[in-house]
Amino acid sequence: MDRLRNLFSALGVDALLVSHLPNVQYLCGFSGSAGLLLVETGASTLFTDSRYTFQAAEEVVGARVHIAKHGLIRAASEAIRKKGRHRKVGYSLTYASVAQHNALQAGAGKHVRWMPDNDAVEKLRAVKDAGELAIMQEAADVISGVFADVLQKIRPEATELEVAAEIEHAIKRRGGSGPSFETIVAAGPRSAWAHARPSGNPLGKSGLVVLDQGAIIRGYCSDMTRTVLLGRASNEVRHLYQAVLDAQQSAKKAIHAGVKAGDVDAAARKSLKQAGLAQYFTHSTGHGLGLEVHEMPRLGRGETTVLQEGMVVTVEPGVYVQGLGGVRIEDDVVVTADGCADLTTARRDLLEL
After folding, report:
1. For residues 297 and 305, is the Cβ–Cβ distance under 8 A?
2. Is the pLDDT at 114 greater than 90, yes or no?
């Protein structure tokens, strides 16, 4: 919160009302499903409801807890109005709805000017400190171990849903609080669906199987994809797999503090173009990772964000060929001064099961 307060002058605000729950958790530790955090120059207040009286008392650090009886927005806007001295209050244009903004304006009064926060908290979150990196390494270790656990469950008669359930069960057995997102298991032609939801279809005796999985440890996410093969690989499948692995390595080599996010994406695309597969890569190369599974920065075409030491990003090129299937290989890496370091460590060679 002190680092956020240091930005008030540049933002042109006297206070900031934080509504996005991962941002609330980042700033004061509160992990409930209902909360608004008012950060002022000299103090902060968390507004929540009576369901979280005891939880807030245990979790919240650096803020007073106000249990709202008639809604959080009403409580926060009334508090701002009563203080009187706040002429400019920052808020998120991304996460506050029009209805919420109107309610805040009505409750706080005409003397308050609401200002965009320019994603100030998200930008702070993008660079992890040593404590955060230690937790994210744990989350990466969990999901790397889960992949090894689940390999034996990948059989022709198993359904995509059954394998997804095994992954999510293994996450909890290894100490994760749950999956970072809905686990993706897609086999055969469905593996060409970049974000397929698991179905009741059996994996089948031959074909590619994409497994996209992540674990949450103390609020922080991991996100890892591996592609395996049931049966024996054709020359075409071997070409696809090696091309994606080469593209991932090219992207990793491009990462270091000071490089633009778009340059990392360009490195992956250049590698796939050399393999004659650029047209089959249909999404960005990666994204930031932390309290959310998708956060700043985005590793995509033309992205001008400059990577900083301590950022954690995914590197996940893929190719998707209709009728044949898809290959995606994804790892979590931390940006260092002169490169990057892998957090996820599960084997990356083509496994023929």
Report:
1. yes
2. yes
Q: What is the mean pLDDT of residues 121-147?
A: 98
How many of the other CB atoms lie within 10 Å of CB of 97?
Answer: 9
Assess contact for 262 and 302: CB atoms under 8 A. Answer: yes
Closest CA to 72 of 132, 18, 147: 18
Domain ranges across the chain? 2-125, 127-342
Q: Give me the architecture of the 127-342 domain, per CATH.
A: Alpha-Beta Complex (3.90)
63 DSSP 8-state letter? S
- Non-local (6+) Cβ contacts of 337 within 8 A are 256, 257, 309
Q: Which residues contact 29 (CB under 8 A, 6 or more apart)?
A: 59, 60, 61
**pLDDT tens digit string along 258-298?**
999 999 999 999 999 999 999 999 999 999 999 999 999 99
The amino acid present at 62, given as its one-letter code, is G
Transcribe 256-295 into DSSP letters. Answer: -TT-BHHHHHHHHHHHHHHTT-GGG--S-SEEE-SSSSSE
| Residue 236: count of CB within 10 angstroms of its CB | 10
Tell me: the pLDDT tens digits for 288-310?
A: 999 999 999 999 999 999 999 99
**Who's near 254: CB < 8 A, 6+ residues apart?**
263, 264, 266, 267
Query: Backbone dihedral region of 302: left (phi > 0), alpha (psi from -120 to 50 degrees) or beta?
Result: left
- CATH code for residues 2-125: 3.40.350.10
Q: What residues contact residue 148 under an 8 Å CB cut-off, 6+ apart? A: 346
Q: In what order do the strands lie in the sheet with 220-221?
A: 178-179, 215-217, 220-221
Q: Is 163 within 8 Å of 198 (Cβ atoms)?
A: yes
